[in-house]
């Protein structure tokens, strides 16, 4: 079971602990962690995280393709997970990434602000 995260913070269980997830929710939590963590931030685990933090430096017309590339790279180690679509859009001046996935036939969706 994975610890649940929302907007980069752990989700409280209301009893001083942290909520845990199972099944598709567990996979989704791992996906959100991989996409949110900066690749290279964990020296002993260089494959953890993504390079999505680099997107603001890229030319605007290249960002969507780079986002899909960075997502694919970050999630390469997840078994039984297919990336169906990556959508990069602006919401109230903030770039957001929506990643639609399929895990063991179950559709999942991860959203995060960049």
Automatic annotation (TrEMBL):
<protein>
    <recommendedName>
        <fullName>DUF2634 domain-containing protein</fullName>
    </recommendedName>
</protein>
